[in-house]
Structure formats: C-alpha cells, structure tokens
C-alpha cells in the first residue's frame, strides 16, 4: 500500500471526506497502481499510466466520478498553464472512466469534459467557474448535474428531465383495453409491470438476455407468441429473482398481468398487442429519472376511465392532501422513527415524507441496505386482484428509490427485502390490519383509513369470537373507521403523533360518543382541518384531518387550545380532471398549523386568517359535535365564500349520487336492525312519574336584567346559553364567574321555555342561562339512579304531545305535570342499564334521521344537466 495512504490512514472505507454520497480522496503522492492495490479503484491494467499520480479523486463504488488536479497559483495564471494542467489529466480521466476533470489553484477553477477536452458550461452556455470546495453543500448537486448531462457530444448541463409518462400510459391503456376489455384497474397494473421491466433495463439492472432491448430484438428471429412466452418464462422469473417475493403474503413488485395468466403462462392471442406496447415504450426513450408525482397522476388518469372507481378510491388520496399532512408531520420524520399507515393503498403516505432523505435514511453497507427509519404499510386481500394494492406499493417504492438503486445495481435483493418489510398484505383474516392488537409501537401514523358502516357488523362479529380482540376493541365504535381509530390510538407510542383523514360521522354520531371520549382520554387534540366536499376522487363524503398526540399518561389533562381551519379549495379542481388551481387554502392551513405548534398559548392573539379559529379544549365535550364548520356563523361563511351553493351534475353524476345514497341507507338499515335486536334482559316494567317529582323546579334561572349588554360589560369565561335550537351555540357570550345575584349551574339538564320551546340539552361544566331557559336539576336521591340522556329523550318525546308554542308557553307549572315512564327492576328500583339502552336507541334514531335528511338535502340542492 502507498506510504501516503498508510500515513494518513486512508483506505477504501476511510476516505479523506465525503462529498454528498461519494468518497473523496485528497492525495498527491499515490499512484494509480497503489490505488488499485488498496481497492480504491478497480483492479485492472492501466498500462503506462499506472505510475501516474493524481491529486484527488471522487469515487462511488470504485467508479471514478471526477479527477482533481491541484496547482500552485503561480503555475495556474496564464491560459497556456491552464491548458497544460488540463491536457496532462485527460488521459488519466479517460482510463479511469471519469467524465469530469476539475483543475484548480483554490482561487480559479476549471471544469472540463474529459470526453471532448472542452470546458463545461451551464444550461445557458456560460462556462462553469464554481470553486472546488469539498465542504460546499451545493457541490454534490452540481457534480451530479454535470455527470448526468455531459457526453462525447455535449459539454453543457442539461435540465434534468423528470420522466412522467402519463400520456404513454393512456395510449397503452387503449391498446390493452381494445383487445382484452379489461377493467382500467387491470390495464393500469399491466402498464406498471411493463414500466418496471423497461425501467430496470434502462438502469442496466436487467442485462443481456433479460433486457428490454434483447426482448424487442427477438423480432428478427422469433414469432410474437414466442416473444411473449419468453417474457413470461425468463424475464419475469429474473425480476422475481432480483426482487424476491415476501413469503408472508407471496407478493413482490410484479405478480401477473393481462398478458400473462395466473399460472405464469402467456395468454393466447395477446402477443401482437404485447409487441405493440413494447414498441411504444422503446419510442418513448429512457426512463432513468422519474417524476415522483408520476404514479399519483397515473392512478388519476386510469381512475377517470374506471367504471369501478368506487372500489379503487383506496388507491387515490390526492397528493395535495398527502403533502399537507407530510408538512404538518415533518418534525416527526427523523432517524429512528417508526412510521405506519394501517390502510396504506399504494404507499404514498409513507413514501412522500422520506423521498428527499433516502440517502440519509437508507445506508448501503457491504451487501446490505440498512434502514435508519422504519416504515410499515398494511392492506388486506385474499385473491390475486386484491394483491395488486401491495404490489403497486412495492413497485411505487422501487420508483422512489430509483437513484439509490441506480447507484447500487447489485443490491436488488437487499432492496427487495426492504420493500417486503415496508409493505405487507394481510391475508389471514377479514379484519386485515385490525386482526393484530398492536399497542405502543409507532412514533407516527399517517393514514386515510376506509370509512364505511356497511359490512362493519361482519368485522365486529369476527372480533367477538376472539377474547383478546374483544378486550382490545371495547369502545364499540360505529363503522370500519371507528375500529381503525381505536387501533391507531392504541398502536401509537406515548407522545406519538397521528394525522388521520376521518369522515364527519366520527365527529357527529351520538353513537360514537364513546369513541370521542376514548380520544379525549388517550390523546391531546392538536388540530382539526375541515376539507371540502369532493376532496377525494371517489366520494363526496365530508372529511377532516384530525391531528392527535397520544398522552404519556392518561391522567394528563389537556389545557392547550385546538387549532381549526376551514378549507374551501385544496389547490386543484375537485372533479375528475384535477387541474391545478390558484386557490389553495390547505397549504395555508398547514403553514399556520406549524406556527401554532410552536406557540399554542398565544397564537390566537396574532392570527388574522378568518378561516382559522383557535378553540378552547372545553368545546370538545364527548356529547357535542366536533364538526368545526358549525362553529363559524352563517355570516362568516358567506364572507369566506364557503356557504354551500346549488350544484350542477350530469345524469351520470346524479346516478352515482343516488347509488351512494342507496348504499348509505342500506348501512343505516343494518344499524337499525342491530339496535332492534338488542333487547332487555326480561319483560320490562315501567314506573310513571311526573317531572315535578324528579326535578327540583324551585331552582330559578336569571331574570330579564341579565342581558347581552350586561354580559358584554362583564366579560369572562363562563358560557351563557339562550333558548337556541343549537346545542353548542353560545349566543349570549361569556360572563365573569361568581358575580352577585347571577345564577350559575353545573352539569345538569336545561329546558327552553321560549324560542326553541321544549328543547332539552345536557350541559357539562359550569355555565349560566338567559331568562328563557330553566335548569332541570335532579333531586339528590336520583343523581345515581336516573340517566340524563334517557331523561332528555323521554321528556322531548312527551313534549311533542303537549303542543307548546307562542300561545302555550312551557312554564314550570306545566312542566311539573308532565309524566314519563321509567324502566324499573323487579324489586321496584330504577333500572339504570335499561335506561341507557333506551337512550342509545334514541340516539341512533336521531342520528339516522339526521343522516337521511342530509342525504335528501343533497338531492334537493342539485341542478341536473343534460
């Protein structure tokens, strides 16, 4: 070994320094022979140049990226001196395979293309004179641009063209569909497999008889049927060797196409169109540098054509939403983090956040690829069609890793192992991810889980068969989304964060009161962002981004307020075309959220955005709605331009909406049936009692002097409720506590005697009332015997029969005489469990009525176009 290398402790694993991903050796007294003997460069015969010494080299896996020639300033002044410095290095650079020569005296620097001997210029044709400074963080990008661009005919940097073959995909879709009639989903999957084949060939990972060029060249000697069979027998087998399948779910990056049957045989009659598709790929050109957005745009293109797009919505969360969530979660995406998406689709939620740091998060050491971050994506499926989700996720990951794989073409098996560990298909249960009762495992969860109520009873039935799962899923939330919410929260580590796309049902359904209570008990609510209708390609469901932090200790009480934001536009049209538009409220929401994170207590004082409100955590009671849109007044919504307008749809769009409503009604019908089957333990007896016997009606409310003006002069933090129909609306404002002659109440029922007459609300915490509302306070002996929710619905049912109104006021005397029936046990005591069961049935009925009204209102507002 060279004396210089020994003295300075330099070898293949210990360079002078790193320049980006490359090794930099600053030497000067070491020959090419010594470098090859030290395994720093390739061990080949360099002829008479073996005795030549170089001042510096930049190397990657023995590939020489650049040769550096250092000169003293006195030897680098004149044009002739500079030409001489370049000339003496051209031969060395060529024999080492380096396209770049850098000659410098540390003041002036010349960049030269060794293939032409000419100076290298930027995109505008101006000579590059950037100083060579190994510690300059911008240097790696410059060298990469030069290395990518220059060749025997070009000395200028080219704009790095990112390949986005969406138009090619559309063209090939037409070819495949014309002969097969396959669904757009299967056409997409076929395109992706052939894309992977061409891509791996362009990276020189598939070589010789397994390459794209070889297969296309077979036309000279073989029939089209023989070429397709060769692809099925040889090339697909080779791809699976390079990227082995996962023995847990039998998936790899490919797994069957329209051209190849399930038993891996070529499909008769399709060989001609197969060759036609290959030719289109050949005409398109090389696929080395791939646009990260390509896959998302590709899915969108195929979904536009898909008659079964409702089922394929799982593959498409708009990139605008994914990147917004990525932006909010960026502080959690770091070395050592374990990140999960329990319903991952094609993996964008996991791949987008790491795309810019792949070389940092995945280190190649020897024959292994060492992950410095862990991503885990799960989906479920049982047949070949359902496997496509995870296969596409792995193919997607391969494209994201394109630059690393290009640098390490002999590490495909190691990368395949990473792909298999990152994305897993759950095949052992209809529960999929929900089958594994994970607890305290993930630092970060990013997800858009499925939200349907139909079919959830099958999942719950499966859960009921397993005692461990019954203990795990004890909240009994509504719908699949409720089960996923419970899984997500339990699977988070203490202090872990989750960013979840959720439907409005979780925030509104009275039957999900327990789920909201579970969220409050286990987590801090950081933020809720309201997304507009039709944010998602396949559904007009109202959705939100829910931002949570899991408590380190359940006893911790949230004191921080909650960030909320109303988004009207996400930066793209909310139709099948998804054109970019100028308005992007979602981007502003995420920017403000990140400001809020760093200064929660005082953010509200400098927030000027009318779309953003900061609400105290006490607004998020388990009995209240969490749909934040309701907390902006109609006037505020009109000013923001977000009040719902009549919408125009085509006949086909109307048909799709009616089908959506039909599906919703079917799921509601199933809920009613489930509730009806929950019966009392035995023949139920009831006791009839007057309200005057149950409530202490001697308790008085405030008088007419307790006005809005008075409250304005005595502002505080105690809410004052009036006779409104809206449970959460604090129309009178907030008053100071403990004012003389003012009535305050805590945790009781209230009754509107005017305005929305007869309306009953259960009020939590400390509050005050206007003169139009009276408190219904239980006699003490009944506090633990009667359920407030049961009382609310039982009283409201009876009130409807009394026809209270403007001429028939609901005063205390009349209230006292109203009777309700209360379930009792055989010993005559009140049956609290029966009360709660009845209350839950009332809740369900109210929720279903509201859902039906909401669905019908959608139709009433529509304008049908022909």
Provide an overview of this structure:
With 866 residues, the protein is an alpha/beta fold. The chain folds into four domains: 3-149, Alpha-Beta Complex (tt1808, chain A); 161-325 and 345-358 and 372-416, no CATH class; 429-644, Rossmann fold; 685-830, Alpha-Beta Complex (Adenine-n6-DNA-methyltransferase TaqI, Chain A, domain 2), CATH 3.90.220.20. Helices cover 38% and strands 18% of the residues. The strands form seven sheets. The protein has a nine-stranded mixed beta sheet with strand order 12-11-8-13-14-16-15-17-20. The protein has a seven-stranded mixed beta sheet with strand order 1-2-3-4-5-6-7, sandwiched between helices. Strand 18 and strand 19 form a beta hairpin.
What labels describe this entry?
7-stranded mixed β-sheet, Rossmann fold, 38% helix, alpha/beta, 9-stranded mixed β-sheet, 866 residues, tt1808, chain A, 4 domains
């Amino acid at each position: 070994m060279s004396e210089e290398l020994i003295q300075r402790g330099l070898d293949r694993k210990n360079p002078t320094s790193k320049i980006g991903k490359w090794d930099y050796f600053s030497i000067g007294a070491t020959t090419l022979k010594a470098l090859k003997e030290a395994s720093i460069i390739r061990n080949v015969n360099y002829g008479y140049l073996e005795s030549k010494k170089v001042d510096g080299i930049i190397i990657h896996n023995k590939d020489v990226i650049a040769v550096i020639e250092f000169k003293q300033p006195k030897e680098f002044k004149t044009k002739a001196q500079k030409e001489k410095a370049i000339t003496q290095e051209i031969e060395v650079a060529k024999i080492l395979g380096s396209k770049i020569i850098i000659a410098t005296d540390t003041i002036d620097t010349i960049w030269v293309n060794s293939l032409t001997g000419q100076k290298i210029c930027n995109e505008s044709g101006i000579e590059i004179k950037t100083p060579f400074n190994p510690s300059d963080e911008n240097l790696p990008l410059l060298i990469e641009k030069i290395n990518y661009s220059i060749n025997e005919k070009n000395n200028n940097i080219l704009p790095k063209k990112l390949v986005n073959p969406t138009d090619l995909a559309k063209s090939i879709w037409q070819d495949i569909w014309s002969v097969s009639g396959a669904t757009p989903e299967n056409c997409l999957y076929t395109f992706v497999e052939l894309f992977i084949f061409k891509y791996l060939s362009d990276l020189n990972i598939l070589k010789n008889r397994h390459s794209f060029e070889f297969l296309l060249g077979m036309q000279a000697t073989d029939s089209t049927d023989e070429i397709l069979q060769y692809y099925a027998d040889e090339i697909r087998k080779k791809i699976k060797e390079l990227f082995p399948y996962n023995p847990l779910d039998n998936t790899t990056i490919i797994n069957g196409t329209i051209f190849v049957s399930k038993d891996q045989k070529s499909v008769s009659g399709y060989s001609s169109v197969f060759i036609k598709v290959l030719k289109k790929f050949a005409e398109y050109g090389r696929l080395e540098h791939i646009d990260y957005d390509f896959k998302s745009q590709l899915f969108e293109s195929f979904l536009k054509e898909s008659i079964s797009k409702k089922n394929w919505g799982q593959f498409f969360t708009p990139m605008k939403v994914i990147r917004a969530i990525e932006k909010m979660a960026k502080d959690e995406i770091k070395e050592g983090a374990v990140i999960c998406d329990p319903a991952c689709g094609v993996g964008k939620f996991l791949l987008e956040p790491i795309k810019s740091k792949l070389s940092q998060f995945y280190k190649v050491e020897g024959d292994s690829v060492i992950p410095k971050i862990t991503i885990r994506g799960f989906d479920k499926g049982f047949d070949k069609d359902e496997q496509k989700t995870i296969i596409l996720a792995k193919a997607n990951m391969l494209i994201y890793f394109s630059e690393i794989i290009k640098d390490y073409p002999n590490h495909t098996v190691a990368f395949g192992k990473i792909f298999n560990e990152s994305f897993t298909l759950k095949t052992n249960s209809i529960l999929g991810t929900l089958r594994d009762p994970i607890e305290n495992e993930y630092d970060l969860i990013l997800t858009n889980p499925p939200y349907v109520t139909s079919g959830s009873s099958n999942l719950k039935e499966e859960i009921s068969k397993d005692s461990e799962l019954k203990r795990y899923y004890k909240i009994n939330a509504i719908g699949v989304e409720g089960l996923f919410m419970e899984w997500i929260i339990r699977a988070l580590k203490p202090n872990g964060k989750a960013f979840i796309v959720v439907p409005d049902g979780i925030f509104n359904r009275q039957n999900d009161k327990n789920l909201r209570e579970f969220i409050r008990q286990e987590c801090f609510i950081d933020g809720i962002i309201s997304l507009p209708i039709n944010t998602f390609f396949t559904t007009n469901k109202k959705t939100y981004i829910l931002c949570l932090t899991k408590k380190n200790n359940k006893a911790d009480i949230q004191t921080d307020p909650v960030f909320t934001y109303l988004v009207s536009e996400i930066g793209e049209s909310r139709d099948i075309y998804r054109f970019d538009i100028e308005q992007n409220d979602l981007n502003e929401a995420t920017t403000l959220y990140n400001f809020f994170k760093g200064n929660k207590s005082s953010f509200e004082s400098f927030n000027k955005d009318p779309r953003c409100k900061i609400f105290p955590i006490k607004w998020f009671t388990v009995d209240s709605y969490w749909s934040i849109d309701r907390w902006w007044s109609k006037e505020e919504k009109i000013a923001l331009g977000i009040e719902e307008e009549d919408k125009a749809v085509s006949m086909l769009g109307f048909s799709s909406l009616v089908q959506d409503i039909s599906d919703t009604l079917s799921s509601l019908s199933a809920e009613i049936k489930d509730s009806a089957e929950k019966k009392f333990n035995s023949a139920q007896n009831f006791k009839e009692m007057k309200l005057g016997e149950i409530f202490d009606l001697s308790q008085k409310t405030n008088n007419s002097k307790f006005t809005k003006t008075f409250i304005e002069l005595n502002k505080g933090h105690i809410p004052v409720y009036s006779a409104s129909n809206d449970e959460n609306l604090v129309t009178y404002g907030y008053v100071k506590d403990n004012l003389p002659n003012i009535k305050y109440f805590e945790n009781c029922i209230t009754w509107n005697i005017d305005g929305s007459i007869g309306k009953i609300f259960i009020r939590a915490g400390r509050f005050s009332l206007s003169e139009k509302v009276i408190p219904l306070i239980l006699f003490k002996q009944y506090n633990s015997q009667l359920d407030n929710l049961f009382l609310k619905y039982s009283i409201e049912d009876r009130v409807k029969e009394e026809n209270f109104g403007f001429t028939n006021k609901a005063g205390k005397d009349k209230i006292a005489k109203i009777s309700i029936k209360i379930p009792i046990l055989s010993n005559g005591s009140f049956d609290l469990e029966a009360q709660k069961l009845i209350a839950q049935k009332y809740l369900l009925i109210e929720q279903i009525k509201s859902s039906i009204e909401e669905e019908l209102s959608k139709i009433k507002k529509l304008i049908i176009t022909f």
